Amino acid sequence: MIIVMDGKTPEEKIKHVIKRVEDEGLKAHLSRGTEKIIIGVIGDERKIKIDQIKAIEGVEQVMPILKPYKLASREFKKEDTIIEIDDVTIGGKEIAVMAGPCAVEDEERILETAKAVKKAGAKILRGGAYKPRTGPYAFHGLGEEGLRYLARAREQTGLLIVTEVMDTRTVGLVAKYADILQIGTRNMQNYPLLREVGKIDKPVLLKRGMWATLDEFLLAAEYILSEGNRKVILCERGIRTFSNFTRNTLDLNIIPAIKKVSHLPIIVDPSHGTGRKDLVPAMSKASIAAGADGLILEVHKNPELAVSDADQTISTEEFAKLMKELKPVAEAVGRTL
Amino acid sequence: MIIVMDGKTPEEKIKHVIKRVEDEGLKAHLSRGTEKIIIGVIGDERKIKIDQIKAIEGVEQVMPILKPYKLASREFKKEDTIIEIDDVTIGGKEIAVMAGPCAVEDEERILETAKAVKKAGAKILRGGAYKPRTGPYAFHGLGEEGLRYLARAREQTGLLIVTEVMDTRTVGLVAKYADILQIGTRNMQNYPLLREVGKIDKPVLLKRGMWATLDEFLLAAEYILSEGNRKVILCERGIRTFSNFTRNTLDLNIIPAIKKVSHLPIIVDPSHGTGRKDLVPAMSKASIAAGADGLILEVHKNPELAVSDADQTISTEEFAKLMKELKPVAEAVGRTL
Amino acid sequence: MIIVMDGKTPEEKIKHVIKRVEDEGLKAHLSRGTEKIIIGVIGDERKIKIDQIKAIEGVEQVMPILKPYKLASREFKKEDTIIEIDDVTIGGKEIAVMAGPCAVEDEERILETAKAVKKAGAKILRGGAYKPRTGPYAFHGLGEEGLRYLARAREQTGLLIVTEVMDTRTVGLVAKYADILQIGTRNMQNYPLLREVGKIDKPVLLKRGMWATLDEFLLAAEYILSEGNRKVILCERGIRTFSNFTRNTLDLNIIPAIKKVSHLPIIVDPSHGTGRKDLVPAMSKASIAAGADGLILEVHKNPELAVSDADQTISTEEFAKLMKELKPVAEAVGRTL
Amino acid sequence: MIIVMDGKTPEEKIKHVIKRVEDEGLKAHLSRGTEKIIIGVIGDERKIKIDQIKAIEGVEQVMPILKPYKLASREFKKEDTIIEIDDVTIGGKEIAVMAGPCAVEDEERILETAKAVKKAGAKILRGGAYKPRTGPYAFHGLGEEGLRYLARAREQTGLLIVTEVMDTRTVGLVAKYADILQIGTRNMQNYPLLREVGKIDKPVLLKRGMWATLDEFLLAAEYILSEGNRKVILCERGIRTFSNFTRNTLDLNIIPAIKKVSHLPIIVDPSHGTGRKDLVPAMSKASIAAGADGLILEVHKNPELAVSDADQTISTEEFAKLMKELKPVAEAVGRTL
Fold first, then answer.
1. Is residue B213 part of a domain?
2. Which residues of D touch A214 (CB under 8 A)?
3. Which of C29, C31, C240 sits opposite A42 (nearest CB)?
4. Chain B residue with minimal CA distance to A139?
5. Tell me: the pLDDT tens digits for D192-227?
6. Range of the domain at A174
7. Closest chain D residue to A335, measured at CA
8. Cys-Cys link to B45, which of A259, B1, C62, C201 (CB 3.0-4.6 A)?
């Protein structure tokens, strides 16, 4: 940690800062300039409350130099985390593709879509039983009934199931049916929920909050990891910017950036990330070229009839075509699909 | 609702769109241009799934023209909502000031601060017993113990209590102690939580999500209102932008904009909104001049020792001085303080 | 400046960094931790090229601690800069109000508006003769003819004239007619233009780029100041964010923030800042309460017929009413109007 | 264009709007609902001043439905624009790679880098003779001397030259030396400059303003096209967002989005787009996979000594390695390199 103080700060205030640092068992190195005083803090800076130091008279800036997350960092674990579920791996050489409708609508339709995405090469079926919707009057999902349909689709196709959980009170229920629990973008900083999924023994797909910095994203993962669940899959799904030709701005830059500082796998959701089905194929290819470990795509037998997100959903035919186009891109960057 | 289609769309697709509209009991008015076809939809457009229409071949844009929220709108309720708790009103002529520390730390300190802010003119005491923190290793509040200290401060000072609730499972507990329940910025789209506080009979202070548009903000309020709780207080607390001299960009524009479309009261949190105690006085005055119904401020007897948000917390002395400065500003815009 | 290196960096690389620092005549203080090495640089850090240091192996972060601007800073000049033109002051106790149409349309209309805003209390007339328009097919202003009409309006009303200059080749021409030269938001980083207006002896109204940080804003001012022109008036006019109920997000936070680090006066443009005439009155009051030194407002005799920005332009009647409402707000914060 | 009016608007105001529309030779179709009145405008809506209509009492929204640009649109020109300079094509099957230092520093160094990038497969040399720098005290380029060094490098290597022009007064000079003129991000809305490069007969590389929407980007291109220069190459280079792990947020979504609405070629600048050399390889691959027509990369013989942008500049060795990795990605999406 580095503490910058005004060069004209009274001596006692400088000593006060140094004492606060030393009281926590850390060392303080003082460098005096005419305009500014720099105090280099050596040791586990996480013990010091930045806000409190900033509140001391004369202190102008306090800059942490260590990463705020531990378990999520490459320093903590050098090798890539590879999550294995049955014969599917996420984070290894293989690109993991999750596909399916935004919401589970009825048993027949989810089965139909499941079979089609399976045939095209997907290994994991996505579908919402509990849907976060911007307004209270929209369709909010079938609840446990939807979970049962998903389980039925798994039985019949062998696909794994990923589905969202929104409430601390239903974590147990969702975990009973799902292979992977999804935390949606709006809940990335719903800390009680993160802690709850941190206590179960199933992989968690954590979507980046549409407002979240890289550090905040990994700190949300850290909440889950710190409860004992080490199977976290990160997911970029678009951030809020001024740009308005897409619903969100899919930020692929985070893929190589995460790979540098964290061992966790990261996949991309180009459907929500762009909100436009016509951009999904190009951005899917770009995601893989950028180093993503997988994709999660909204696919529906008949997008026009999808009860939600119809405009960003590709058809099962378009999905099959896309899967063929993705293969050479994956191979071009040393991956398989 | 307006549907724009490509001018070269085959006739059958145009008819298909019109049929979809009429099937919902609405009327469709067709205007044909050479480049584009415009279909004006007359009736309760909320019945139509925009995404589905967008997914039809030939459809280029679907633009809703009615507001997506109802109960929160001025159309639904013309007069300003004034929330009365004991002798305090929020949304009326009087500016409501809520003040106190970020987190409740211990009984003595919260009492000390409570007495000081009471003396300076605050009517409501803020203080967190459950704290959402970006990282899992920070101080997360005293829980029910903190709530008890707040209740004790109420007994001794007569101040009302506003405190945050983060988990559907603790809504009942927090409601037992608090006069106003706060939903924090990170939970603005935590829909199960919104529904839960919508079922209780106490006012809810709903903070704007740092990523939320005006419509999303009012739709979050709509979740609470639609469950039966009509006592919602909106709160602007800064949004995420590229600008980096403040922690967030406090967006005062939303005050007059909300007043135009909604009857709900709106207050401002300049402490979180700027993240800088040196900007709090100016932005407090600006908030009131812009038409805010109140302020929520972080105040601590000794900011340097505050366990969280110390750098954006003003001292009780600074608060007393500010209250004096706010009075003439309130009067200049026809309010009292 | 602070340089943070990886704790495992080979000794020779550390020495290399220290040598680079010392070669520029600065001192380097080394603090060794296990995870990180901190090098505190004491002296005029502006001599060091940050990018080059960052490019050295082992260097993880380089953090400047001095402000990147000099002449614009409070350190350079303690007292507020007060710009005097005839009997008008900008930056002093008096609030300076500039008002007029977006574009000069014809002689009669500009005169009419000039007389009305003068009567209501404005001291400065705004009006564009050269208009930056997003598309090439819009009205781009009357050019020199427009400047002549403005001069005519000055003669007849005694109002000062502020008008925009967009091209290095017309700075001389505009300076011949205008009392204050305006640099528009799109040109905030048009460096040849900044240098050119830095060479003339008339005040410059510098609008914040809609993408500009506080530091970039003051560095743009520094370009003008460093050429010798010390009469720079800053102007907040809204930034680009995700928020869509306003055309831009008027960022009033910058007013007290600028006052802290710079001696330059700062005014606000709520017309462009919000893009909504219905928000102009509230945001004008808020600007003054936040400490702004003035306002620049779009006012037109008949907004419906304004050739540009009609939707954010208030009528002369609305302006007269607003001026009356602003007076008590100005007085509440110790200013006059 | 669609005009939405309040359902309770007096009849005369509705007629007034219709008259305004018809006065411009367009047709108005009226649809009356209880809450809102919709007026569909058929014809060349660009004749109508949106702002003026918005300023009429009762008008709530005015929504254009035609694209604001013409010459830049796919409607105007169906086939992709392919720009040919000598034996290099931009916008065709081949991926165009432009590489070189941020700034031209001296003759020897630019030659050295030119030879290295040529050998690795680049066809175009980038290098700044006029440099836009955030502060006035930084290195601003060698001016014409730098242009001469670039010309020398072209003679010796056969590489084409792309270099920036910042001032209307030097367009002729830069055009004398350069094969492609670059308009930098800060000047994307410097309209006099756009018009000036629109009058010359050399291709223009137009960088997206870091604040620009897709429409504004294409409208800037329209300025150049409308002056007669049809050789415009678009370039994505990162936008301003809250995200802080990159200097800018490289927005690859714009590549497929531009391809849909415009015939112009688009390339990507991952060096400025991310500001981090460690992200350049992954984002270069992603750009090509997303459909970009080329790349512009900062490459230096010894990045640590580059006078500007050293931290985002890759070495000539890294560039050679990257070119090899890009080849299979280009082929995977049907392109050559």
1. yes
2. 243-245
3. C31
4. B49
5. 999 999 999 999 999 999 999 999 999 999 999 999
6. 83-332
7. D329
8. B1
